[in-house]
Structures are given as C-alpha cells and as structure tokens.
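Quick one: co-fold with arginine.
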Amino acid sequence: MATVPSLAATVHQRVSDALSAALPEAASADPLLRRSDRADFQANGMLALAKQLKGNPRELAGKVTEALPANDEIASIEVSGPGFLNITVADEAIMDNLAARRQDPRLGVPYKDDPGTTVIDYSQPNVAKEMHVGHLRSTVIGDAVVQLLEHRGEKVIRRHHIGDWGTNFGMLIQYLIEHPHELDHASDTAGAKDAGEAAMARLNRLYKSSRALFDSDEAFKARARDRVPALQSGDPDTLALWHKIVDESKTYFQGVYDELDVEIRDTDIVGESAYNDALQEVVEELEESGVAVRSEGALCVFFEDVKGPDGTPTPLIVQKSNGGFGYAATDLAAIRNRVGELKADTLLYVVDARQSLHFRMVFETARRAGWLPEDTARQLPFGTVLGKDGKPFKTREGETVRLVDLLDEAVERAAAVVREKADDGVTEDEIRARAEQVGIGAVKYADLSNSMTRDYVFDLDRMVSLQGDTSVYLQYAYARVRSIFRKAGALRPVPHPELELAPAERALALHLDAFGDTLVTAADEYEPHKVTAYLYELATLYSRFFENCPVLKADTTEQAENRLFLCDLTAEVLHQGLALLGIRTPERL
Ligand code: ARG
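Sure, here it is.
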C-alpha cells in the first residue's frame, strides 16, 4: 500500500520551488495552481505577489519560468496574459502516475499523517415514533462522513443518540401495565423490513390508545405521571416494559436501515437514557462552578449574544423547575463521556440546522465547565427536505412522510428506468435487484450532492433520471465500462505512457489524477458533496472520451490497451468513490 501523490501536487511543488529560488523574499508564497482550460494548469499567484513586492507580474512570472529546472513532469511553461503561468504536463508523466495509482488497492489515496479519534453523533431517531426525512439526511450524511474518515485512517466511534428517554415514556409504560397484551404478536418470520413495519404499527397503536386515555382520563394521567420517577430511578418492572418498547423501535429502525442499505450497529446505539445516571452530577458541577444559575426555579446558563425577539436573554435550561432534566443536560453528559472516557479529539454532530442554537449553547456551556477543549466540537448542520411546493416535506394530509413509503417509491421509479434499459431476457428478480441499488442510490446521492446546509426539494423524478447530476448517471457510466470489458476478448487494460494522448484522454486522465486530493479535502472538511461533484465530472469526461476515442476499435493494440486502462481506472474510481457514499455500482443497468 503506497500513497501516490497526484501529479498536480508534484507540479505544484516544482513551481513553488522555482518561485522560492527566483524570489527568495517570497519563499512561502503560494503559486495558486489550478486546472485550467487554457493549459493543463494555470498559476495566477504572481499577480498578488507582484502587488505585494511592487513588481511587474509578467516579469516575476518570467523569472519563475527561468528558475524551473528541467523535469519529467512539466512539458512546457509559459507566461500569458497579465502574468499567469500556463503549464502543460507531459503525457508520459500523467500515465506513469495513473499506472502507479492503479497498482495500489486504495488507488494511492493517502492516510492522514496524524489520525485521531472522532466521535460522530448521527442517525438519532426517536423511540416509539416514525423516522422522517430529517433522520434520513442524518443517516445518509453521517454514514458517508464515517466512511470518508475511516478511509483516511481516523479512528471513528459512532454514536446514535436516539430519543429513548423522557416523560412521554411514563404514559406508554403505564398503558402497557394496564393493557399487558398491547404489544403481543405472533413471532415475525418475515424479513427485516416487514418485521420493522409490523413493530412500528404496534407502536403506533400503543401510542394512539395511550394518548387517547391520557387526554380523556385524569386518573390515568396522574398514574402516567407517577410512572416517570419510577422509570428514572430504575424500578425493575418499569424498566422491563421500557426495554420492550425500545426493542420494538429498534426492530423498526433496523428495517429502515436495511432497506436504506446502511449498517447501523446495535452497540453504537447509545441513546439519551445511557446518560441518565450522570445527569445529577452534571447539574451539580454546573451549579457549583457558577456556570449555571437558578432562575425562576430552573437551572440556566446565560449567553451574552443569545436573546429572544424582545431582548430578554434566552438561557439554556439544564434542569427544569420541577427537577426534570431535558435534552440539554443529556447532551452535556454525553460530551463529558465522549471527551473524558472515549478520549475524542473531535466531536461531530450530524443534526438538522434548526438545532444549531441548541448546539451552540451546549458547546459553549461545556467549554465554560472545562469539559470541552476549544475547537473540538462541531455540528454538521443540514438543511430541510422540502416538498415540490417548497414547504417542509409532508404528505397531502400534512403528516410526516413515512420513510419506508418514500424508499419503496424510489425503488419503484427506479424499476421503471431499469426495465426500460434492460436487455430482453433479464428476469424480474434481476430488475428488482438493480432497481433497489439504483433507487436507494438515487435517494442517497440527491441528499449528498446538495451542499449540506442547503434545503433541497425531494423530487423522485429528477433523482432517478438518467440525465443530469444523479447517481443513475454515474451507475450507468460504470455499467458501460463493465460492458466494454465483457466485449474486450483477449485485450487487457495496460498503460502505455509512451503514447501521445488525445485531448479527451488527457482531460479524463488529469481528472483521474485528482481522485486522492478530492477525497482528502472531502474527508478533512466533512464535505461528501465534493465527492459527488468530482464523480459527476468524471462520468461526464468519461462519456466525452467514449464518444471521441474508440476503445476496442482503436488504431493499434497499444492504444486499445491504453484506453482500456483508462476505462478500468475510471470504473474503479467510480466504484470506490460511490462505495464511500454508500452507493452501489451494479454490473449492468
Ligand atoms: N433525536 C433527535 C431528533 O430526532 C436528534 C438527536 C441529535 N443528537 C444529539 N446529541 N442531540 O431530532
């Protein structure tokens, strides 16, 4: 396993060295090298530098050019316009580099120099409730960030901070005590999805019946309220029923995860309840240190810059006036655990942007209390999923859209696309299998390709389209490559660096060169959408290459082998890139 630096990085280094040699007074200046349409790369750093040194940018650029020693990578360098450097790299260097990349199973993508431990909080649905599109986003984004970080060698600890605690459990448990057969059912033999749906149906029934009683029967309401302290203090019978409800929910969650094709491990589900025993200590410490103060009976933390519309400060409430602990106290206890016990260097929270104020206050409180070092915690906030009407995504009746229905529909639409493309004789089972990978991939891709903080419109028609920036387009590009290989006969993918490259080959090859750099930035900046953008561009360049450069019918065997090599590397990059985003690449579409 060997890291393969990109050719772009090598060229950058060469130009930087030449710049330091030519202008020792600007030794650390960045030449600002970019891919360019005019040449392979363009460096425009000389403009800012000239201003700084009060010189002429064209002259400076000329000096840098002269200071560049002959090397294998740069075929030509010239000064253009007001003082840009236009750089053309050698075909041979491009192909040599790609050949080295292909040798490595990781395609030469570097590990981090200084990996640490990241605890990431994502996919945190609530017990006894349906999952909604917000939970979908958190799951899909979180999963991609986990894969990207692990690929870089970071140690990642996953935490699914599910909503499994709180006063509403008093009502559910009390109802179960009085109606002990409510959750009974014949043993589920079906798959994860059906078992999950059946579990959710039972939970919905339990929720509706207990809510109805709670709202209509004062005596029941009182008994339900009394059940809360019994739960909090760990009364065994109460806890047993609580477990039963949590387990039903987990069955439901796993059904959704199964359909969504993400791995969520039971041991990583550490919900709000897990921090129950630490809450008392958390509030005591906060109160003793003066970080939190009593205000109208509640224990509060105040912030200079957090005020309501009328100018009165909005505090973070860590303990309510009735003594109850809330969402904030739990998050504070979780921080202490993640930093103190799990030894996290970085804490990530993949949570809806609408909770940003909550996290800002929680992080600041934890810092004041000395539990959280500066710059350790970070929310990765995501935008809202909208319906076609531009409002938060709901059913026509104004209810939350059930995730399973949504995913089923995505697979259904994908099946139509797949069926139309499929050759005669493809079985219905095969179509279903492909449709699942296409439909689920489309939902994930749409979610990831929109920049995280932006709201986006959930539009299945667009998501499963073969045209445009969709996973189907990428999967199709992959399948096309695979089909070439099925027809290649004895031809093998072999790089021939001595060959001159056609423009479409160069463009594709130089983009392939950027795979490692893209993954590094995407992982280190927590931006999966940089990967989708990169892969989309790759598929586009591939299709241009495919139109302009015959592969199996190339002029010579060497050229055919060289083009097959580019095909093969393209497929491998598509496959590895999409896999990191949780998206499959079927062999045929
Ligand atoms: N369960 C919450 C919800 O559905 C999300 C939890 C986010 N994580 C956290 N540590 N607060 O909105």
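If it helps, The chain has 20 helices and 13 strands.
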